[in-house]
């Protein structure tokens, strides 16, 4: 009889033991992922996608990370970069720090540099508040949209902003990750933002890159990096009005801007959001969808008859035919545009504006934001207490012929000309004043007309912008017929601008050559404008302030000389700058302002001159002027002030008071004797 093997039941694991092993497994996975992530960082795989990095030249400052945009582009070869504008790691108490978020208009295309609206704003604020520091950091990029605005805002809140300024919307469909873009990864904003969050990790970058390489190996390397940026970014060239894809773009914008304003309001950070402007009057719709002949058989007949009448300048006939066509099918973009043109010529500007706006909204190639986005901007600004609407559109309309925006202020479809950028800056400035972010003393305020007159934009910058737009219009979707050389290149400024446009010459080199040219030709006013341009471009470099001050001195412009010497002194104090400042202030009869710089010069005296008597005389003048306030005709006091200035070798100060004396007493012997010595 065979032995029967005894059956032993497997002991059941306890619930606690199972939980322990599950937790251990999860923990091990997390540790492994951490080790992988750490190893990839150590071996410098992938990109550091933080918004800010230390400035390589000065560890006390931060700047925009050139790789920050790579998070938003699936094709890294076409990722755009922004400005390098420094701001201090440790914010000064006297500093107003403003971050700018947006797209190509916001960064200042096609001028960049000092043509951009934030530089107009920076110049005006600096000259209206000469004793305050302004850090205006433009984080805008070309070819991006509200995903970047929201993503950047999430990091900006940690850097002590006093305000955030936003202008965005025109790129919503074709900017990186837009629903009609070649760079899209989905149409659900929450999912897209989750993917963007994960992209900061090197392990995710490794997996993404591996996947893309496999895809390219299977499909072949068909990535197109040629053509204009506009062409490269467009996947869906035809997005009908109120279609499913159109609505997804609206929802994407609404979600991202809503989340941005919610985030900033939670931190009590004032945010100023501008509505959008575009060329409505002078730009035909890029894509007008054909009318269905079966559904609307009479539309095409009326439309063609209208076109023929329009060519003959028969506006009444054209209006009749187009109106008939529009009554049959009111969703044809070009039909609405031509109705706008005709009613404009007939002087019915209100109706023309309605047609132009509708034509823009019906345009199937969505390079101009639909009016729905302006409605959303207004609604969202009302939703949050710290969000403020900047009504740039009204400002542009006020400066446009018959209040319809066209070629007068817009270079092509959406980018303003220099006056347009000045108006955009003015719109933000007015809103900041209204909301009391800045408290302006009207006596010291730089007016808009002064800004237009004094803003340092060189001819090279202005021409380079026009050349860039001219080149843009020769390509899709504009395809304007132009001569092979649509602009002249004869003068030094034109040659330098062409060099910048064609990328044969770096902008700093062009500006340096322009400065040398003006100096060699003794065109000091133009040379100073070049240096002021560099002050705005490099606001932390004292050398440019000092050079602008010296040129202002040569031009006998004491006001600007003082302004730039003070800025230079604040960045890099020195005996020479202090000496220039106290001399200028005394010459302008402002001894109170001169004394702090006299004190510095005395404590850091590198000259052979004894400055203590000068300070004593300056203090004496301060006291005498206080006495003079009670009796402005006191000849004894006036003579004492004149003598004090004369002993300081301040002839202009002495002469000013001697003239006051002689107006009161033409034969005053002391005044006449001192006047003779001055002459």
From TrEMBL:
Gene Ontology MF: a single term: hydrolase activity, acting on ester bonds
Signal peptide (UniProt feature, chain positions): none
Gene3D superfamilies assigned: SGNH hydrolase, Tetratricopeptide repeat domain
Keyword Cell division annotated: no
Pfam families hit by this protein: TPR_19, TPR_8
Keywords: Membrane, Repeat, TPR repeat, Transmembrane, Transmembrane helix
Presence of keyword Cytoplasm: no
Transmembrane segments: 20-40
Name under which the protein is recorded: Tetratricopeptide repeat protein
Taxonomic lineage from the root: Bacteria, Pseudomonadati, Bacteroidota, Cytophagia, Cytophagales
